[in-house]
Specification:
By secondary structure, the protein is mostly beta strands. 3% of the residues lie in helices and 49% in strands. The chain has a single domain, classed as YVTN repeat-like/Quinoprotein amine dehydrogenase (Methylamine Dehydrogenase, Chain H, 7 Propeller). Strand 2 and strand 3 form a beta hairpin.
Length: 349
């Protein structure tokens, strides 16, 4: 029996703006908006919004199925509790646990087709390269939950420290790494046995990480310290710590296809830092908008996108010149962004 629950009929249809009938664009962007409860589809050819689709409460993390047909979105009924809010104040706020789950959106029909139960307060997650397994961080329970996508069933959960957030499968798919904000560490999990292999110390409040294409190196952000922990991903040990410019609040990570360049979104610092992997040197700091979090590269690597929450926009950066090409208005506190090959999206029925 599938461990799912269904959204109401009206939500499944979505509150959508009109779509373009045909486009020659090679890619679309999909952006989650935490306050609006929507995802926004953007035509990457002309940086224009095509439509918005209602998905549920507080959509944050987003991933695609390997074939690009489905978008998976982390939904949460837990109230927003920023780092500056005392725990006792956060605990007074009312949570709607019935809203927690991983929403699955069919991008061709622009409908939420179902919501997977994925543990409490899911924030970020990753999908295995074969599309059969999803691992989600449950922020308020300190666990990582494994979901079998062939049956939509929970396989089990592992304790991974306080306030887990970033989740990444290793390039070979044998491990999944989960950051623990409260523990200042990354927990390395064996995918086959669902057991912990190692704990790697990081700076304070690690948010995300990225791997080199060969799986040998990992770059881990730390929001409060403004540092990048560079780890030997095979030996599970810290190689060195790289300090970013003063005041940097490092958050999201994107790695170029050749592994030569690392892009870091810097949250309250309003910038993206560009690193040369070979020399640990800062190539540029590009101002993008208020509190960039989600970060993604285009398929050909020539464009970088950031979702900037308080400024309600997505910034487009030319990775060859490291200059801002455009800003696209996306309402409702944009949080996550991902690029996907173009798919025709059906007109509203």
């Amino acid at each position: 029996m599938r461990a799912v629950h269904w959204l109401g009929f009206a939500l499944a249809l979505g509150a959508c703006t009109p779509a373009s009938e045909i486009s020659t664009a090679r890619e679309q962007l999909i952006v989650t908006s935490e306050d609006a409860g929507t995802i926004t589809v953007i035509d990457a050819a002309n940086d224009s919004v095509m439509m918005t689709i209602a998905v549920g409460k507080r959509p944050r993390g987003i991933k695609l199925s390997p074939d690009g047909r489905l978008a998976y979105v982390a939904l949460s009924g837990s109230p927003k509790c920023p780092p500056t809010m005392p725990d006792e104040e956060c605990e007074k706020l009312i949570a709607d646990k019935s809203a927690d789950g991983i929403g699955i959106v069919d991008l061709e029909s622009r409908k939420v087709i179902r919501v997977l139960h994925g543990g409490s307060d899911p924030e970020q997650f990753d999908i295995s390269h074969d599309g059969r397994l999803l691992v989600v961080s449950n922020e308020d329970s300190g666990k990582a939950t494994f979901i079998d996508l062939t049956t939509d069933s929970i396989l089990g959960s592992i304790t991974v420290g306080g306030e887990p957030e970033g989740v990444r499968f290793s390039p070979d798919g044998s491990e999944v790494w989960v950051t623990s904000e409260a523990d200042a560490a990354v927990h390395v999990l064996n995918v086959a046995t669902r057991t912990e292999l190692a704990v790697i110390p990081t700076g304070h409040r690690p948010r995300d990480l990225g791997f080199s294409p060969d799986g040998g190196t990992a770059w881990i952000t730390s929001e409060f310290d403004g540092v990048i922990t560079i780890a030997d991903a095979r030996a599970h040990k810290v190689l060195r710590t790289l300090a970013l410019p003063s005041g940097t609040r490092s958050m999201g990570v994107a790695v170029s296809a050749d592994g030569a360049t690392i892009y870091i979104s810097n949250g309250r610092s309003k910038t993206v830092t560009v690193l040369a992997a070979a020399t640990d040197s800062v190539l540029a700091n590009v101002e993008v908008g208020a509190r960039p979090w989600g970060i993604a590269l285009s398929g050909d690597g020539t464009r970088l996108y950031t979702a900037n929450g308080p400024s309600n926009d997505v910034t487009v950066i030319d990775t060859r010149t490291l200059t801002v090409l455009a800003k696209i208005t996306v309402d409702g506190l944009p949080w996550g962004v991902i690029a996907t090959p173009w798919r025709r999206i059906s007109p509203r029925n």
